[in-house]
Amino acid sequence: MAIILDPNAPAPSAQSGANSDLIKDSGIETFVQDVIEPSMEGPVVVDFWAPWCGPCKTLTPIIEKVTREAGGRVKLVKIDIDKNQDLAIQLRIQSVPTVYAFKEGRPVDGFQGAQPESEVRAFFERIAGGPLESPIEMLLEKAHAALAEDDAITAHGLYGNVLEREPDNDTALGGVLRCMVAMGEIENARGFVDDMGDRTRLKTPIAAAISALELAEAVTHNADLDVARAHAEANPTDTQAKFDLGMALFAANKREEAVQTMIEIIRKDREWNEDGARTQLIKFFEAWGPMDPASVAGRRALSTVLFA
């Protein structure tokens, strides 16, 4: 097994946002209380690593991720062999990374070297006695469902629970932003986005949520729907009035009407306001998500108009 030597490399993080009860550092002095005793109640995975080990840096985030997804069914203990050479000798650790699973006070399974996530997951499922159900995915599903039912407060809390476990989860970050927009917390949402790095803003779930924020900002000072509709009906040749109506419809979450209004502008004058209607319509789709029925139907209608 090839090991990349790099004496100046930082050691992998033992926590990485994980719950400290599930993932911790240990050594020869605390091995019994951190590994042997807990293994009497449930499996404990022990990761033997070293700060100069390249494959350890590949394996660490994978093992930590799968441990979190196990939802407490498996604990992870990490041991730096450079600091615990006597323990490594006692357990006959000949290379790193080496991973052992302990049950009832003794090792029952293990592997050496960096492994793909699929193999690590299979290892965890084997020692846990069944498939792992990711609490992250379950929380995200519940959050999506709550937001779809216009329960932004519940969804916000669920997305927040995900971020407590995985602070960089793109889907949860985008979800929190959508909840803020849904609750009318536009200024807070803008501050939330401004605190993000440029690369984070470009990630798909977050970029889509930012589109929703930008649209919300654009309609904040617009007339309400009844006023916008009355103005458009009184001025049928006024394209700007029609556009304002489309934005008001979006703000009122009348998706099909909002799409139809923008499509009418595009059909009448594709180049109006530097392609402004089509640009806003695309933002509608981004804000709603690609699988939303209004997005699917709207893209079909837009293609018909553009390529007729």
User: What would you report as the Rg, rounded to the nearest angstrom?
Assistant: 27 Å
Alpha plus pi helix count = 15
Shape: elongated
Q: Give me the count of strands.
A: 5
* Gap between N and C termini: 61 Å
Brief summary of the model shown:
The protein has about 300 residues and is of the alpha/beta class. Helix content is about 55%, strand content about 10%.
Please characterize this protein's 3D structure.
Residues 1-19 have low confidence and may be disordered. α2 links the parallel β2 and β3. A five-stranded mixed sheet has the order 1-3-2-4-5. It starts with 22 loop residues before the first strand and ends with a helix. It is of the alpha/beta class. It is 56% helix and 9% strand. The protein has helices at 31-36, 54-69, 85-90, 117-128, 135-148, 152-165, 170-182, 186-194, 198-201, 204-219, 225-234, 239-251, 255-268, 276-288, 293-306, and strands at 23-26, 44-49, 75-80, 98-103, 106-112. It has 15 helices and five strands. α7 (170-182) runs parallel beside α10, α8 runs antiparallel to α10 and α13 (255-268) runs parallel beside α15 (293-306).
Question: Which key terms come to mind for this protein?
Answer:
single chain; 308 residues; alpha/beta; 5-stranded mixed beta sheet; 15 helices; 56% helix; elongated; disordered N terminus
What is the topological layout?
Elements: E1 23-26, H1 31-36, E2 44-49, H2 54-69, E3 75-80, H3 85-90, E4 98-103, E5 106-112, H4 117-128, H5 135-148, H6 152-165, H7 170-182, H8 186-194, H9 198-201, H10 204-219, H11 225-234, H12 239-251, H13 255-268, H14 276-288, H15 293-306
Parallel strand pairs: 1-3, 2-3
Antiparallel strand pairs: 2-4, 4-5
Helix pairs in contact: 2-4, 5-6, 5-7, 6-7, 7-8, 7-10, 8-10, 10-12, 10-14, 11-12, 12-13, 13-14, 13-15, 14-15
